[in-house]
Amino acid sequence: MTTSLHSLREQTSPRTRTIETYRHLIGGQWVEAAEGGSLPLQDPSDGSLLAEIARGTSEDIDRAVIAARMALAGPWGRMTATERGRVMQRIAEAVLAEADTLADLEARDVGKPLKQARADAVALARYFEFYGGAADKVHGDTIPYQAGFTVMTLYEPHGVTGHIIPWNYPMQIIGRSLGAALAMGNAAVVKPAEEACLTILAFARIAEAAGLPAGALNVVTGTGAEAGAALSAHPGINHISFTGSLPTGALVQAAAAINAVPVTLELGGKSPQIVFADADLERALPVLVMAGIQNAGQTCSASSRILVERPVYETVVAGMAERYRALRVGPALADLDVGPVVSHRQKGIIDRYIDLARDSGLTIAAEGEIVAGSPADGAYVRPTLIRDVPPAHRLAREEIFGPVQVIMPFDTEEEAIALANGTPFGLVCGIWTRDGGRQFRLAHAIQSGQVFINNYGAGGGIELPFGGVKRSGHGREKGFEALYGFGVLKTVSLYHG
Ligand code: NAD
């Protein structure tokens, strides 16, 4: 199926757009950057100027931390857990009511096709529904101790939590980290990515209108080097949640270490799917591809390596190649299979990896199609499937963060495990087999934060603890595990004789 040039133009032609300037949200007020600076945001579908955002500096971070501290001492800090939960449930409903508007904004800002952006808005609502419902279900323990004592544990919020968000899933990532932090009673300072942050600002407006008290959520936009570094090093921050690249995560952790602040790092991966010869290939094939190209491959849990048992290797290569050739890439609002990547900088990184494959003599098994009529200034990359990639090659070991998958054969279960574990990362692994014993052997042997058997959960599973081992990071997002991570356990020992 092809999209006509006419319908593409109709959906994506530059309308008369007013360029809005967005401010920070600090203590319930929408304020300009202390130093008055701003940054441009580009629409990756056509390269046009989408909006301007405030360029936050350490002074703005200071103001936001003070506002959050005041919220803890004010109405937000005085709410019971049940009241907090109710506010969060109202936010969830308001987000759902605005899901189409949020999706449109996310599509323009990040470049993701509308239906994927809408799924992210629904996920944001679901995080607030889940954590809102969980807020008053957090409880400690009583511990048997010596005669005459009663000992109990209490969960308390850390205080002011810092959230450094990447550009690939602004709505989902603020949902998972802020949802858990607020449910536990923290007040938050959020630093979104400078490439894409409009839905986070829109969400903050929705949350305010739904009754979130001033200062419980503060949003300071700006660059990583300015606002992000100031947040990581701020002595008034009590916990940091970071999602992004390994080098930046290491900087954030080092800055936080000076103040002995706990940090959760979610750093991406090179996640494999392992396909054995007895797998249900009909079920596996669409998932193998979708897990690699969703959000143009810019997903921390993207499955970028496909390992296939040799007897079905050619069948899987052919099945994936057929699906790749049918993939259509184009403007986000045209809502095709794949949108542009987030920026020309990101496109440059991905293009260099594809060039490296060609220069190394690797075989491109198939590519998707950029539909005719896509704006020349859009950041489009053809989804690319590369076959027979040697495990030691950079393409098989490094996170590309684009719509590129590598596929390689294996002969034994031991070899499959060694290949799957053979990168510095360990975020997610998919295993496709009908053999029950093998399912459990691999679930134990794989070094990874999540293992999916006969399915692959990239991006989904609000209830399922998520996070990495090895260089994919540490700490857990999602589920109850994240909620407890946003609390501090206090032990209270009472001697009563
Ligand atoms: P990045 O890690 O530099 O940026 C992520 C966030 O950190 C952004 O909000 C950024 O402003 C902030 N930041 C940057 N420098 C900072 C600093 N010194 N102190 C504090 N915060 C800082 O990622 P990027 O440059 O946008 O992307 C580069 C690569 O990172 C991508 O190609 C991809 O491989 C990876 N990445 C991974 C994820 C993920 O979900 N794990 C998300 C985005 C990017």
Written account of the structure:
The longest helix has 21 residues, at 114-134. Helix 4 (81-97) packs antiparallel against helix 6 (114-134), helix 7 crosses helix 17 and helix 11 (281-293) crosses helix 12 (313-325). The strands form 6 sheets. A 7-stranded mixed sheet has the order 16-18-19-14-13-20-21, sandwiched between helices. A 6-stranded mixed sheet has the order 10-9-8-11-12-22, sandwiched between helices. It has 17 helices and 23 strands. It is of the alpha/beta class. The protein has helices at residues 5-12, 58-73, 75-78, 81-97, 99-110, 114-134, 170-183, 198-209, 224-232, 246-258, 281-293, 313-325, 344-359, 394-397, 413-420, 436-445, 479-485, and strands spanning 20-22, 24-26, 29-31, 38-42, 49-54, 142-143, 149-157, 160-164, 187-191, 217-219, 239-243, 263-266, 271-275, 303-309, 328-329, 363-367, 369-370, 384-387, 404-410, 428-432, 450-453, 473-474, 487-495. The chain folds into 2 domains: 5-267 and 475-490, Aldehyde Dehydrogenase, Chain A, domain 1 (3-Layer(aba) Sandwich), CATH 3.40.605; 271-461, Aldehyde Dehydrogenase, Chain A, domain 2 (3-Layer(aba) Sandwich). Helix content is 40%, strand content 21%. The structure holds nicotinamide-adenine-dinucleotide. Nicotinamide-adenine-dinucleotide (NAD) binds next to helix 9 and helix 10.
